Amino acid sequence: MDHCIIHALRIDGRAPFSRIAEVLDVSTQTVARRYRRLNSEMALRVVGVVNPTRSSGEKWILRLTASPNTAEQVAHSLARRDDTIWVRRMSGGNEICFVTVTNSAAHHSLLLHEIPRAASITEVSAHRLLHTYLGGPTAWHGHTTALTDEQQERLRQAFQWAGAEEPETVTSLTPADWQLLAALQRNGRISYTDLAAETGLSSSTITRRLAALQAGGMLTFDVEIGAEVYGITTQALLWMSVAPAHLDQVARSLIEQRELAFLASTTGQTNLVALVLCRTPTELHDYLAHGLSALDSIRVLETSPVQKTLKACSPYLRDSPR
Question: CB under 8 Å to 84, separation ≥6 — which residues?
C-alpha cells in the first residue's frame, strides 16, 4: 500500500487522497493515515521543481575534495544553500558531490569565487549537465512498479481532467509565479487556501496559474523518500567516458536498466554520469561486471560510492525582481 501511494504521487504529486483512495479501492482515511506515517517516519516529501531549461537556468554537477577534518562542515554548508541540490558525501567521506543551479552572474560566484577561496577544499571539478536522460520527473523504475497499468491510466486521466480547461501559455516567470514556486518547493502538497494566504492571490488565480506552469513545462513535482524503503543499501555515481558517436546509443541502453536512477551527459573528461541503486555491494559488483559488459563503447568507468545523502531537492534559486 505504501509503495502504491508513492507511485500515485509520482504520477500526480497533488492528487487528492480521495482520488488515490478510489484508484486503490481503499478508504480516504487509509490513504491519509499512510501518507502521514510515511511523511513523519520515512521523510516522504512531495516537492515542486522548477525546470531550469525553461527558466534560463543552468545545472552543474561539482566534485569537491575537502580535508578530512572539514569535509562534514563543508557538506552541511553546501546543503544549507538554496542553489544546491543532491548534496552527497562520497567514497571515504572527504569527497563531496552536489548539483548547483545557476541563473545569473551573481550565482556563478559559487563556482568562480567562493569555492576556490575555501582553504579546506583541495580539489574541484565542475561539469555542466547538458542533457538529462533519466531523473527528475522521469522516475527511478523502482518507484513505478506498484500500480497496475489500469490504475496508472485512471490517475493520469483524472489529472488531465482536473486541468480540462486550456491553460494559458507561459513564456516567462513573474514575481507572483516565484512566490507560488517557493511555497511549492517547501511543500508540493500545500493547500490552495494556504497558497492564497502566502501569496495574496485568489484560489481561482492560483489554480489557473499552476495549470499553466505545469502545461508549459515550467513546474513538475518530485517525490523524495529514502531509498532504504525499497531495500536499497548501496548507491554509487558512475563517471563514464563514451565515444561521442555512440553517446546517445549508450545512454538509451542504460536508461532501460532497472538499477539506474539518474543519467545525464556532461562536459569534462567524462561525458556521462549515472546514479546506480543496488540492494547490496554484491549486486553493485554484478551490475558493473555484467550489466555494463555489453556496452563496449564505454571506454573509461569510475565508480564513486555514495556514503551519505545530506540533501535531495531544494528551493530553486530565483532570478526575478524582489
Answer: 78, 98, 99, 100, 101, 311, 314
Question: In whole angstroms, what is the distance from residue 59 CA to residue 77 CA?
Answer: 19
Alpha-carbon torsion, ordered 281, 286, 288, 292, to 10 deg: -150
Whole-number Å distance between alpha carbons of 173 and 184: 15
Q: What is d(CA 217, CA 233) in angstroms, rounded to the nearest whole number?
A: 33
**What are the residues facing 264 on neighbouring strands?**
132, 273
Q: What pLDDT does 92 receive?
A: 80
Written as nine digits, the cell of 52 is: 531550469
CA 193, CA 272: separation in Å to the nearest integer? 43
What's the chain's average pLDDT?
85
* Span 153-172, average pLDDT: 68
Tabulate helix, strand, coil % of the chain (nearest 5).
40, 30, 30
pLDDT tens figures, 121-131 = 888 899 999 99
* Alpha-carbon span 302 to 280, nearest angstrom: 19
Q: What is the pLDDT of residues 178-193, one digit of tens each?
A: 889 889 988 999 999 9
